Amino acid sequence: MKQLNLRQKLRVKEETRNFYNGIFIDLGELVIFTGNVVRQLFQPPFEHRELVKQGFLLGNKSFALVVVTGFIMGLVLTMQMNPILSDFGAQTLLPGVIAVSMVRELGPVITGLICAGKISSGIGAEIAAMRVTEQIDAMEVSGTRPLSYVVASRVMATTIVVPVLVIFADAFSLLGAFLAVNIFEDTSTTLFMNRAFSMLGFIDLFPATLKTVLFGFFIGLIGSYKGYTAGRGTESVGLSANSAVVASSLTIFVIDLIFVLITSIL
Fold this sequence. Notes:
Blueprint: H1 2-41, H2 48-87, H3 94-132, H4 135-142, H5 146-184, H6 189-197, H7 202-228, H8 235-265
């Protein structure tokens, strides 16, 4: 009995050690992969057509969901906060509170998570399928740079597309907030916008914009990395898509936490 318990403890320790070793190895490979991808971004020839194509496809896939989600969030958040502010006689602050909360936090994070679920998983599955069907190997043999054509173009596309999607999410959230405010009282568009933007400053806009760029970069990078390093079996396509969503979502929360800590210090 004691020997059995000892074997179980040793097995648990070994599995734990392998788990942490795998995490550090994966992080190291991701850092090397990131360096190679960034290097491809500055080496001609540049894949402009592929960049425009991927940007349109990736943005078009997520646009409707991002817009609808932003609109509903603005509508619901306004309806939830209006009774609270009414108790303190601060209804006039409602547009500004909604604008600050959406621009600084909710808009970028929710849009980033949506893009992690749709864009990063799609990139991971697509590149993994190319790896399984040996298309990437054929590119390497023929002299085509798969890191530039396949990976770098998608990473740059997500870096550009995600901030644009966040702008649309913020805009439609304000539209939803405007409609919700008019449920309780008649408010003109000009008055609502003046109240909303009066509370926004540089400290709100700059960190929010910068972190959305990082969101887009890592969404494309992690999805590409999971697909590029996929195994040869067909089941690796699903595993790559799933792991890309998990890793991208976790990365978004970590980046957001870092920015919140920095802005709170400043």
